[in-house]
Every structure is written in structure tokens, then in C-alpha cells.
Amino acid sequence: MLNISFTNLTLECGTDEAGRGCLAGPVTAAAVILPQGFINKILNDSKQLSEKKRETLKPIIEEQSLAFGVSHIFPKKIDEINILNASILAMHQSIEQLSTTPEFIAVDGNRFKPFQDIPFETVIKGDGKYMNIAAASVLAKTYRDEYMLQIHEEFPMYNWKQNKGYPTKEHREAIKKFGPCKYHRTSFRLIPEQLSLDL
Which residues belong to the annotated binding site for a divalent metal cation? Predict the structure, then answer.
């Protein structure tokens, strides 16, 4: 059973991102403020849940949360500022979208930059420990997956509906065969041979 939140504050938001390790598509973050006393037995780190469970949880989180926000940072910006900064920017933007200003921010992972003057804490594997971070992980993952399904229609040869832009063998083979497209992150090692130099 996950802890409801990191502090006892009423307005604590949890934030998490999805798609950091992908070769294509955005890095997506969500921020969620859950009401005190919120309980859900299924809710967990989105990586531990089936797609069906994530889809079941998404409307529950949206309806029962006090506030939530979701933000995509796209490949052009990722290539410009690097994936770590893009992940933090996505989190900041999702917190900005909250209709209520949080009193505290619980962040999944170990890196974050101060947002306004709101106190925060980074929690390694926080999405498996705190409900508000787990809720943010579910929204980030489901919103990103939805986006990847949309762009799959435009470039079906990469099979993003299946791999969601992650570096699967099949995805790398498709990049090798068709080359990268506008949704790929050019600063990432898209195919392993990119590292080899002819000296």
C-alpha cells in the first residue's frame, strides 16, 4: 500500500515524467494534488501497471484529484536543452497548470530545480512509494501513450503504437531502414553505429 503523501500538508502535489529514455516523441510530465484520505488499491507506479489498469485509473485520478496538470516537451526542445532539463521543464509546466498552488512538491527521481518558492523533495522510486507521485506517473504515461498513438498514424513504419518510441530492436531497425523523422530526438543515439568513428 502506498503512502498517501510525503508531508501532512493538504496541498502537496506529486510530479513525475514519462518517456525520458525514448528515441522519439515528447517527454511528458504530470503533477497531481490528491485529496486527503484518497485511497485506491490499484494505484501504483505506472510501470508496474498494465495498460488496462492505467486507462482505468486515468479518469479516476482526473475526477477525484483536487488539481492536475500535464505537459509535453517536444524533440526540438529536448535536443536544445537536453533530456534532463526537458524533463524538469515538463514537470514545472505541469505544476504551473494546477488550478491550486501547491504548498509542497514531491518529485519522483533525484533531480529537480526549484519551482517558484515552493519547498520540494526528490524521492528515488517515489512513484512506488507515494500516491500523488504514482497518480502523476499514470497521467504522464497515459497522455504520452495517447500522443504516440496519434503520431503512429503519420509514421506507421516505426510501430510507435507498440513501442511508444522506446529503443526496441524493431524501432532501431526501422530508423536504420527509413531514417529518422521529425519526431525523433536527433541528440539521442538513434542507432548504435552512430557512435563508431572511422579513424
Answer: 16-17, 108
